Amino acid sequence: MSGRGASRRRPPVHGPRAAAGRPPSAGVNRSTLKSNWALLGPPPRFLYSAGWVLIPLRLFLGFTFCFAGLQKLANPGFFDSSNPISIQQQLAGAARRSPVHALVAPLVHVAVPLGLLIALVEIAVGLGALLGLWTRVAAVGGFALSLMLFLTISFHSSPFYTGSDIVFAFAWTPLILAGSGGALSVDALVANAVRRRAGQGPALVVPIPFSMVRDVCGSYENGACLARRGAPCEPTPCPYLIGRSEAPRDPVETEMDRRTFAAQGSLAAGAALMALLGGGLAAGIGRLAGGASAKAGPSALGVTPTTAPPTTTTSPATQAPTTTSPSKTSPPGSSAPAPTTTTPRPRPAGTAIGAASQVPVGGAGSFNDPKTGDPSLVIQPQKGTFLAFDVVCPHAGCIVEYDTAGKVLVCPCHGSQFNSTTGAVELGPAATGLHRLGVAKGSDGQLYVI
Fold this sequence. Notes:
Layout: H1 3-8, H2 15-20, H3 50-53, H4 55-74, H5 87-97, H6 101-104, H7 111-131, H8 135-154, H9 164-171, H10 173-178, H11 186-197, H12 210-216, E1 220-221, E2 224-225, E3 231-232, H13 239-242, H14 251-288, H15 292-296, E4 299-300, E5 322-324, E6 340-342, E7 351-355, E8 364-368, E9 375-379, E10 387-390, E11 401-403, E12 408-410, E13 417-419, E14 425-427, E15 435-437, E16 439-441, E17 446-449
Parallel strand pairs: 4-8
Antiparallel strand pairs: 1-2, 2-3, 5-6, 7-17, 8-9, 9-10, 10-15, 11-12, 12-13, 13-14, 16-17
Helix pairs in contact: 4-7, 4-14, 7-8, 7-14, 8-9, 11-14
C-alpha cells in the first residue's frame, strides 16, 4: 500500500487529536499563559474579535454612566424640589408630556428615593462596563435606563436622532449580545482562574484564519474534506468547528461555571460596596463645597400654588398707604392725630405664587404653574418688572434654566435658547418658543399668576 493511499483512508481527526498534529510553528507558547494577567494582552488578529473591538464602547459608556451617577449625588440641586434641574421638576414635566405619563405620574411622590436609585444604578452599570464584570447584566441595566430616559425626557426630540437617550439605548445592544468578549474583563480573569485550578485550559477565544484550521485538520487534503466524502472544505459545515458542540456537557464544566458565578458574585458585591462608598463621598464633597450647582439656579419662591390669600388679610409690613385728615372735634391746641382711614388697593386676579422680594433683580425664581403644574420661572430683569414662563422645553421636555450672565433661557439637554423677554426661540433645535405666563405684583408684596 502506497503512502498516498494510506493518507486517503486515514480516519477523520478533530479536536485534541488535530491539535496534536499542529506544526511547531503554530504551537502555543504556554509560558505566556501561566499568569492570568498575561491574558490581558491582545491575541493575534485581535481586531477580528468582538471583545477587543468593543473596548472603546465599554470605556465610553462606563465612564459616562459613572460620571452621571456621581454628578447627581454630588449636586444638592438634583434633590431640591425648588431647583429646575431637580428630579422632582423633571418628573413633573415628564408626567404631563411623556407617552408613558400614566406610569410616571405616581413616581412624583417618591422622586427623591427614585433619584437616589437612578444615581446608584448608573454607577453600578458604569463599573460593570468598565471592569467587564457581569457585562451583559450591566448592559441590560444601561439599556433599561436609557430607554426610560428616552420615554420620559427625549421622546419628543425632533428629529428623533437629536435626542441622545435613544442613541445610548442602542449603544448598549452590542454589549448585551457579546458581553465583554473575554477582553480586558474581570469575567474572563475569574473564569480562567477557576479553570486553571481545575486543571483545565483557559476559555480564551482566539480568532484564526480558516487556512490554519485546514493545516491542523487531519481530514483535509487537496482542497477536499475526507470526513465529508471529498466535499469541498468550507468553514460553515466543518466538522472540526462544530464537532464539539454536539458533545454532552461535562460535569466538570458545570462545576466550573458554578464556581465562576460565585466568584463573580463576590466581586460584584465588593464593587457595589465601593460604589456606595464612592457615591457617599461624592455626595459629601458636593455638600461641603456649598452646593454650587444648587446656588447657581434660581431662587425658590417657597409657596406651593393653591388658592389666593383672602383680600381682607393685610400684614403690617405690607399694609396699604393710609390717608390722615384733621378731626373737626379735636380740642383747640390738641396734638393728638385724628382717626385714619385705610383704603387697601385691590390685589391682581390670579393665584399667589410667593413674595416678590424673593426674586432678585436680574435673577429668577422658580414655581409651578397653578393651572398646569409645569415647572415655571419668574424673572425680574429690572426692578419692579416681572416676567414668567413655563420652562418645560417644547423640544424634548427638559427643564429650561435662566442664564443670568447671558440674560437668556437655556435648555441644558440640547442647547436650545429662548428670549428672556418674549420666550421666542433664539437658537434651536427647539421649533417653538416657551409659553409666557401673565404675572403681576400685588399691593401685599406677593406675585400673582394671572
